[in-house]
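Q: What does the assembly look like in three dimensions?
Context provided by user:
Components: two
Sequences:
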Amino acid sequence: MNPKTLNARHIWLIGLHWGRHAVRGGAGLVYLMIALVFGLSVAHMVIMPVEQLMTAQQREMGTKDPEIIRGTIVAVGQPILRFVLGLRSMEDLTRENDVPERSKAQSTAGGDTARADRWTNFLLEKRPALLSLIFLVLVFGMPFAISFLAFNQVTGDIQSHGLRYLLLRTERGNIYFGRFLGTAAFSTAVMAVLIATITLYLGLRIRLYPAGALAGWALHGFLVLAILMLPYIAVCSILSASVDSPFLSLVLAKLVIGGVLLFSILGGLKWETMKLVRYALPWGWQNHLLHPDPSHWLGAALACVLYTGVFLLLGYARFETRDL
Amino acid sequence: MTHAVSIKGLSKRFGRTQALHEVSFEVPSRSIFGLLGPNGAGKTTLFSLTANFLKASAGTVEVLGIDTRYISRLQGRLSILPQDAEFQRNVPILDQLVFFRRLAGRTKQQAHEEVLHTLDMVGLQAVAKRRVSSLSHGMIKRLGVAQAFLGHPEVILLDEPTSGLDPANARQVRDLVRQLQERATILVSSHNLAEIQDLCDHVAILDHGRLVLAGSVDAITRSRRECHLGLSRALQNGELERLLALPGLRSIEPTSAATGRSGHPLRSVEYLVKLDLSAAGIDQDTVIAALLRTLLDLGITPRKLTEGRSLESQFLEVTGHPPQFTEQT
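A: Here is the predicted structure of the complete assembly.
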């Protein structure tokens, strides 16, 4: 590998061409549909009960009280967030529900619990809670969806030998990194559309939060999702550069992304150390992108960049030396 | 004579299959070099190694003095029409070719003009805005040829450029290749031996991954000291004896019947004439001139004279396969 052979103009042109034509190729369109359907469904599931609550309040009281609604969202969202963030097990939550007084006593005693409460309070009370809940689900679910866009960065053209028209016109590295860039740009654009749609709906229709707070947190969430997709796209790059069949690349991408999490969860039930498997991908870090402490979310963002770099280099090493 | 392409000890193995085995030859500059061989002989593999699509198991390929392992140094100087590569099906052909030229540093406007000019050369300008998926097989082939001719490459590899084309389009491609010879070295593989003989000045024949013959077409065909003769009528016994009495003639054997299936005499009766140039002071031109004079004296009109053996006969001899069974069209 020789970085001197990389050409920024070529990478840019290839990324632009790839991004522009990703929709025409089919995979981009599929991803766009999946991302929007998934994202908007999540938003619908989170927002719908609130809308029902608001309607009921209007009917019964003749007016809407945002304070009561926000309080209800916090009360309902807190145990869910604690579980999703990995701060409580399902057993803990059940026990807390059964013995609330004892639980309350525990929560004030334990340092971990205090930290947990700080995190959940930040997401539910200091930031627009509805957006926080949506972001948490998207952070969990989008890595599964991204493989529909990223599985075929080069593998289809390896199979059809279409890359051969490019190989005498540019370096392999420019093709590899250009395609990654185009895929990442397309993914980022889809995230922007999704987050903008949800935020506009919350701001114009629900009106529970000040516009400034909503816009700021939406921007943070957009950046979180944009940066989180990078290592997963890079994993797909490795697979795409390693196999000759787009279908096999897609299956492997699903198996790797889902398998690491599943292996970690199921293995962790029997052996504690198996939980560490989740760190093979950003699964172990990614929720920290929504942490109140800047050192946490900056660290998690840095981890995402490092994962991306390592995965990209591994994939590039394979792409550079293989028969095309 | 300088060499545009130099191949030394080139081998390629796919698992257990030895696709190429220590192939070495050189391609002179500004030549049209034909690559022949039965199916699976390794022609496409050789082209792919030359373009660095595949990594060689052993040996080296140099194009314009540059080792193709450092292929980036040849950007813009080497181009290829790959045999089985597909374009992006849902992208307009103009966009694809403009993108290729932009990689060569052209502005959008320059790239646009160059592409339209090249598409015009292959008769595709009218469909420039159509998607590849809407083009016929022949059009896609011509599009492949167009992308190989884009810019000013010094070496062009054309892997079966006329396969799948109708005779008119095939001829158009051959004419383009001839025009390009003034400024480029061209390597062509083809299943059409007559086309290679007509188009190329040098040739290499591969069989089972090994080089079995390489050299100029002229040297290969003339070196056999034979010629094919087409006459206005069949030779009678006395006439045959008179011809064989000429110095330098070894044998004259008919290679076609005197009459067709319907019993009518054919316009031209074919003979294979073998020469014996071992005696001092006899050369091929003198012998052929004497042969033609004698035929005219006998009142026989020579309708055709081809010196040397055809490439087809040569191909059959070195590979052991009749060419019609060696390539899929």
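Follow-up: Confidence is low (pLDDT under 50) at residues 324-329 of chain B.
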